[in-house]
Design brief:
Structural class: mainly alpha
Number of strands: 0
Shape: extended
Helix content: 40-55%
Number of helices: 5
Largest sheet: none
Order of helices and strands: HHHHH
Number of domains: 2
Distance between the termini: 17 Å
């Protein structure tokens, strides 16, 4: 997703069966950037929470979630939580993916 954000946005749009023009894809990519989301979090936070808001987003490195979710048991619980959420939506697409590191 980080290598070609526009392609990832177009893939997601196709999955959601939505057509997006090039300007909309560009706008989504800009607004979905980590720096844009950090800025928006700080700008929209009450003054007392601005410092906390500035630290809300992690480093933005691919795979850094592994630094926060440690251990096979916790990963299994997370995978079940996600799968359960997908099942409750009524979505009928495959959910075999899980988040265990390769």
């Amino acid at each position: 997703m980080t290598a070609d954000k526009a392609a990832a946005v177009r893939d997601l749009a196709a999955f959601l069966e939505r057509d997006l023009d090039a300007k909309t894809v560009e706008n989504i990519c800009r607004r979905a950037s980590l720096s844009s989301m950090r800025s928006a979090a700080v700008a929209s936070a009450p003054e007392i929470l601005k410092e906390a808001a500035s630290k809300f987003y992690r480093g933005g490195r691919v795979g850094d979630w592994r630094d926060y979710i440690i251990g096979a048991d916790l990963l299994d619980r997370w995978n079940e939580f996600v799968a359960d959420g997908v099942r409750r939506t009524g979505e009928n697409r495959p959910t075999e993916r899980n988040f265990h590191p390769q």
